[in-house]
Amino acid sequence: VLNGLHSHNISCHAERFNGECSHAEINRLIAILKQHGCRGVVGIGGGKTLDTAKAIGYYQKLPVVVIPTIASTDAPTSALSVIYTEAGEFEEYLIYPKNPDMVVMDTAIIAKAPVRLLVAGMGDALSTWFEAKACFDARATSMAGGQSTAAALSLARLCYDTLLAEGEKARLAAQAGVVTDALERIVEANTYLSGIGFESSGLAGAHAIHNGFTILEECHHLYHGEKVAFGTLAQLVLQNSPMEEIETVLNFCQKVGLPVTLAEMG
Q1: What stretch of H or E contains 66?
Q2: Residues 158-185: pLDDT tens digits?
Q3: Which of 51, 74, 210, 220 is an active site residue?
Q4: Is 57 in contact with 88 (CB distance < 8 Å)?
Q5: Three-state secondary structure call for residue 95
Q6: Is-catalytic flag, 224?
Protein backbone atom coordinates (compact mmCIF):
# COMPACT_ATOMS: atom_id res chain seq x y z
CA VAL A 1 0.00 0.00 0.00
CA LEU A 2 2.76 2.44 0.94
CA ASN A 3 4.74 1.67 -2.22
CA GLY A 4 1.59 2.05 -4.30
CA LEU A 5 0.86 5.48 -2.82
CA HIS A 6 4.48 6.63 -3.29
CA SER A 7 4.51 5.44 -6.91
CA HIS A 8 1.61 7.84 -7.55
CA ASN A 9 3.33 10.69 -5.71
CA ILE A 10 0.91 10.57 -2.81
CA SER A 11 2.64 11.36 0.46
CA CYS A 12 1.50 9.31 3.45
CA HIS A 13 2.37 8.57 7.05
CA ALA A 14 2.11 5.07 8.54
CA GLU A 15 1.50 4.58 12.24
CA ARG A 16 1.37 1.27 14.13
CA PHE A 17 -1.87 0.50 15.98
CA ASN A 18 -1.50 0.00 19.74
CA GLY A 19 -3.90 -2.95 19.91
CA GLU A 20 -7.01 -1.55 21.63
CA CYS A 21 -9.85 0.39 20.01
CA SER A 22 -10.20 2.87 22.88
CA HIS A 23 -10.86 6.62 23.05
CA ALA A 24 -7.24 7.14 24.18
CA GLU A 25 -5.87 5.35 21.09
CA ILE A 26 -8.28 7.18 18.73
CA ASN A 27 -7.20 10.56 20.17
CA ARG A 28 -3.50 9.62 19.96
CA LEU A 29 -3.83 8.84 16.25
CA ILE A 30 -5.96 11.93 15.53
CA ALA A 31 -3.15 14.09 16.95
CA ILE A 32 -0.64 12.42 14.58
CA LEU A 33 -3.05 12.80 11.64
CA LYS A 34 -3.41 16.54 12.31
CA GLN A 35 0.35 16.96 12.71
CA HIS A 36 0.91 15.49 9.22
CA GLY A 37 -2.11 17.22 7.65
CA CYS A 38 -3.54 13.94 6.31
CA ARG A 39 -6.70 14.14 4.21
CA GLY A 40 -7.80 10.53 4.46
CA VAL A 41 -7.46 7.41 6.60
CA VAL A 42 -6.46 3.90 5.51
CA GLY A 43 -6.93 1.11 8.07
CA ILE A 44 -4.99 -2.12 7.45
CA GLY A 45 -5.34 -5.11 9.78
CA GLY A 46 -7.94 -6.73 12.02
CA GLY A 47 -11.28 -5.58 13.44
CA LYS A 48 -10.01 -3.29 16.18
CA THR A 49 -7.56 -1.59 13.83
CA LEU A 50 -10.33 -1.00 11.30
CA ASP A 51 -12.80 0.21 13.94
CA THR A 52 -10.17 2.72 15.08
CA ALA A 53 -9.60 3.93 11.50
CA LYS A 54 -13.37 4.40 11.06
CA ALA A 55 -13.54 6.39 14.31
CA ILE A 56 -10.71 8.70 13.21
CA GLY A 57 -12.43 9.30 9.87
CA TYR A 58 -15.72 10.05 11.62
CA TYR A 59 -14.30 12.53 14.12
CA GLN A 60 -12.17 14.27 11.48
CA LYS A 61 -14.81 14.08 8.71
CA LEU A 62 -12.37 12.35 6.34
CA PRO A 63 -12.81 9.47 3.86
CA VAL A 64 -11.90 6.00 5.13
CA VAL A 65 -10.49 3.06 3.17
CA VAL A 66 -10.58 -0.26 5.00
CA ILE A 67 -8.16 -3.08 4.09
CA PRO A 68 -8.75 -6.17 6.26
CA THR A 69 -5.87 -8.66 6.46
CA ILE A 70 -8.11 -11.22 8.18
CA ALA A 71 -11.78 -12.20 7.88
CA SER A 72 -12.40 -12.59 11.62
CA THR A 73 -15.34 -10.17 12.08
CA ASP A 74 -17.87 -8.14 10.11
CA ALA A 75 -16.18 -4.89 11.27
CA PRO A 76 -14.88 -3.88 7.80
CA THR A 77 -18.24 -3.11 6.19
CA SER A 78 -20.21 -1.78 9.15
CA ALA A 79 -20.98 1.83 10.07
CA LEU A 80 -20.03 1.44 13.70
CA SER A 81 -17.05 0.87 15.97
CA VAL A 82 -16.94 -1.13 19.18
CA ILE A 83 -15.12 0.97 21.75
CA TYR A 84 -13.30 -0.84 24.57
CA THR A 85 -11.61 0.40 27.73
CA GLU A 86 -7.81 0.32 27.87
CA ALA A 87 -8.21 -2.99 29.76
CA GLY A 88 -10.16 -4.53 26.87
CA GLU A 89 -13.64 -4.42 28.43
CA PHE A 90 -16.61 -3.46 26.24
CA GLU A 91 -17.46 0.23 26.70
CA GLU A 92 -19.88 1.36 23.96
CA TYR A 93 -20.97 1.19 20.33
CA LEU A 94 -20.09 4.28 18.28
CA ILE A 95 -22.66 4.52 15.45
CA TYR A 96 -21.76 6.41 12.27
CA PRO A 97 -23.93 8.14 9.64
CA LYS A 98 -22.25 6.18 6.82
CA ASN A 99 -20.28 3.03 6.03
CA PRO A 100 -16.57 3.07 5.07
CA ASP A 101 -15.94 4.64 1.65
CA MET A 102 -14.13 1.57 0.37
CA VAL A 103 -13.42 -1.98 1.58
CA VAL A 104 -10.65 -3.89 -0.19
CA MET A 105 -10.10 -7.56 0.64
CA ASP A 106 -7.27 -9.58 -0.92
CA THR A 107 -8.14 -13.22 -0.33
CA ALA A 108 -4.54 -14.28 -1.04
CA ILE A 109 -3.52 -12.36 2.11
CA ILE A 110 -6.48 -13.65 4.14
CA ALA A 111 -5.72 -17.28 3.17
CA LYS A 112 -2.25 -16.91 4.73
CA ALA A 113 -3.59 -15.59 8.07
CA PRO A 114 -3.96 -17.90 11.09
CA VAL A 115 -6.84 -20.35 10.50
CA ARG A 116 -8.29 -19.64 13.94
CA LEU A 117 -9.09 -16.07 12.82
CA LEU A 118 -11.12 -17.22 9.82
CA VAL A 119 -13.00 -19.65 12.07
CA ALA A 120 -13.65 -16.87 14.60
CA GLY A 121 -15.12 -14.87 11.71
CA MET A 122 -17.49 -17.75 11.03
CA GLY A 123 -18.50 -17.63 14.71
CA ASP A 124 -19.33 -13.94 14.41
CA ALA A 125 -21.24 -14.54 11.15
CA LEU A 126 -23.08 -17.50 12.69
CA SER A 127 -25.12 -15.19 14.91
CA THR A 128 -26.23 -12.88 12.06
CA TRP A 129 -29.28 -14.82 10.91
CA PHE A 130 -30.56 -15.70 14.39
CA GLU A 131 -30.15 -12.16 15.73
CA ALA A 132 -31.61 -10.59 12.56
CA LYS A 133 -34.63 -12.91 12.75
CA ALA A 134 -35.17 -12.14 16.44
CA CYS A 135 -35.08 -8.39 15.72
CA PHE A 136 -37.36 -8.78 12.69
CA ASP A 137 -39.91 -10.81 14.68
CA ALA A 138 -39.83 -8.33 17.58
CA ARG A 139 -40.09 -5.37 15.19
CA ALA A 140 -37.04 -3.97 16.95
CA THR A 141 -35.28 -0.86 15.62
CA SER A 142 -32.27 -1.85 13.51
CA MET A 143 -28.69 -0.64 14.04
CA ALA A 144 -29.33 1.67 11.06
CA GLY A 145 -32.26 3.24 12.96
CA GLY A 146 -35.22 1.85 11.02
CA GLN A 147 -37.26 -1.33 10.64
CA SER A 148 -35.63 -4.45 9.27
CA THR A 149 -36.54 -5.36 5.67
CA ALA A 150 -37.11 -8.64 3.87
CA ALA A 151 -33.96 -7.83 1.85
CA ALA A 152 -31.86 -7.54 5.03
CA LEU A 153 -33.32 -10.78 6.34
CA SER A 154 -32.49 -12.54 3.06
CA LEU A 155 -28.84 -11.43 3.27
CA ALA A 156 -28.67 -12.66 6.88
CA ARG A 157 -30.15 -16.01 5.85
CA LEU A 158 -27.72 -16.29 2.91
CA CYS A 159 -24.90 -15.69 5.41
CA TYR A 160 -26.04 -18.67 7.52
CA ASP A 161 -26.62 -20.96 4.50
CA THR A 162 -23.15 -20.08 3.13
CA LEU A 163 -21.50 -20.97 6.45
CA LEU A 164 -23.15 -24.39 6.56
CA ALA A 165 -22.32 -25.14 2.91
CA GLU A 166 -18.77 -23.75 2.70
CA GLY A 167 -17.41 -23.34 6.24
CA GLU A 168 -15.58 -26.62 6.64
CA LYS A 169 -14.13 -26.50 3.11
CA ALA A 170 -12.93 -22.93 3.69
CA ARG A 171 -11.21 -23.94 6.94
CA LEU A 172 -9.33 -26.71 5.10
CA ALA A 173 -8.30 -24.25 2.37
CA ALA A 174 -7.03 -21.78 4.98
CA GLN A 175 -5.07 -24.58 6.67
CA ALA A 176 -3.34 -25.17 3.34
CA GLY A 177 -2.97 -21.40 2.78
CA VAL A 178 -4.76 -21.54 -0.58
CA VAL A 179 -7.63 -19.55 -2.09
CA THR A 180 -10.60 -21.66 -3.18
CA ASP A 181 -14.20 -20.81 -4.11
CA ALA A 182 -15.25 -21.93 -0.64
CA LEU A 183 -12.76 -19.56 1.01
CA GLU A 184 -13.91 -16.66 -1.20
CA ARG A 185 -17.52 -17.31 -0.22
CA ILE A 186 -16.74 -17.51 3.49
CA VAL A 187 -14.79 -14.23 3.30
CA GLU A 188 -17.91 -12.69 1.73
CA ALA A 189 -20.17 -14.23 4.39
CA ASN A 190 -17.95 -13.26 7.34
CA THR A 191 -17.45 -9.71 6.16
CA TYR A 192 -20.16 -8.52 3.81
CA LEU A 193 -23.27 -10.64 4.39
CA SER A 194 -22.77 -10.58 8.15
CA GLY A 195 -21.94 -6.86 8.21
CA ILE A 196 -24.91 -5.72 6.14
CA GLY A 197 -27.15 -8.38 7.71
CA PHE A 198 -26.62 -7.34 11.33
CA GLU A 199 -26.61 -3.63 10.57
CA SER A 200 -29.87 -3.66 8.63
CA SER A 201 -31.68 -5.86 11.17
CA GLY A 202 -29.99 -5.74 14.56
CA LEU A 203 -28.20 -7.60 17.32
CA ALA A 204 -29.88 -9.72 20.00
CA GLY A 205 -28.88 -12.28 22.64
CA ALA A 206 -25.67 -13.57 21.07
CA HIS A 207 -23.84 -10.22 21.08
CA ALA A 208 -25.26 -9.18 24.46
CA ILE A 209 -23.86 -12.39 25.96
CA HIS A 210 -20.54 -11.71 24.19
CA ASN A 211 -20.40 -8.25 25.77
CA GLY A 212 -20.80 -9.81 29.20
CA PHE A 213 -17.97 -12.26 28.52
CA THR A 214 -15.54 -9.37 27.81
CA ILE A 215 -15.55 -8.50 31.54
CA LEU A 216 -14.28 -11.97 32.50
CA GLU A 217 -10.51 -12.29 32.77
CA GLU A 218 -10.79 -15.99 31.77
CA CYS A 219 -12.25 -15.01 28.38
CA HIS A 220 -9.69 -12.36 27.40
CA HIS A 221 -7.73 -14.91 25.31
CA LEU A 222 -10.77 -15.61 23.12
CA TYR A 223 -11.56 -13.85 19.85
CA HIS A 224 -14.78 -11.87 19.35
CA GLY A 225 -16.36 -14.51 17.09
CA GLU A 226 -15.53 -17.38 19.45
CA LYS A 227 -17.52 -15.69 22.22
CA VAL A 228 -20.32 -14.77 19.80
CA ALA A 229 -20.64 -18.40 18.63
CA PHE A 230 -21.18 -19.50 22.24
CA GLY A 231 -23.65 -16.62 22.66
CA THR A 232 -25.53 -17.86 19.58
CA LEU A 233 -26.02 -21.28 21.13
CA ALA A 234 -27.17 -19.63 24.36
CA GLN A 235 -29.65 -17.45 22.42
CA LEU A 236 -31.07 -20.52 20.64
CA VAL A 237 -31.70 -22.17 24.01
CA LEU A 238 -33.19 -18.94 25.46
CA GLN A 239 -35.68 -18.64 22.62
CA ASN A 240 -36.47 -22.37 22.81
CA SER A 241 -35.46 -23.06 19.21
CA PRO A 242 -36.24 -26.48 17.69
CA MET A 243 -33.79 -29.19 18.78
CA GLU A 244 -32.88 -29.84 15.14
CA GLU A 245 -31.73 -26.21 14.72
CA ILE A 246 -29.68 -26.29 17.94
CA GLU A 247 -28.06 -29.58 16.82
CA THR A 248 -27.19 -28.09 13.40
CA VAL A 249 -25.47 -25.07 14.96
CA LEU A 250 -23.75 -27.21 17.61
CA ASN A 251 -22.52 -29.61 14.93
CA PHE A 252 -21.22 -26.74 12.78
CA CYS A 253 -19.30 -25.23 15.72
CA GLN A 254 -17.68 -28.57 16.55
CA LYS A 255 -16.76 -29.24 12.92
CA VAL A 256 -14.97 -25.92 12.36
CA GLY A 257 -13.54 -25.67 15.90
CA LEU A 258 -15.64 -23.08 17.76
CA PRO A 259 -16.13 -23.38 21.56
CA VAL A 260 -19.43 -24.90 22.69
CA THR A 261 -18.91 -25.35 26.45
CA LEU A 262 -17.97 -23.00 29.29
CA ALA A 263 -14.90 -25.18 29.87
CA GLU A 264 -13.77 -24.56 26.27
CA MET A 265 -14.36 -20.84 26.91
CA GLY A 266 -11.92 -20.99 29.81
Answers
A1: strand 64-68
A2: 999 999 999 999 999 999 999 999 999 9
A3: 210
A4: no
A5: strand
A6: yes
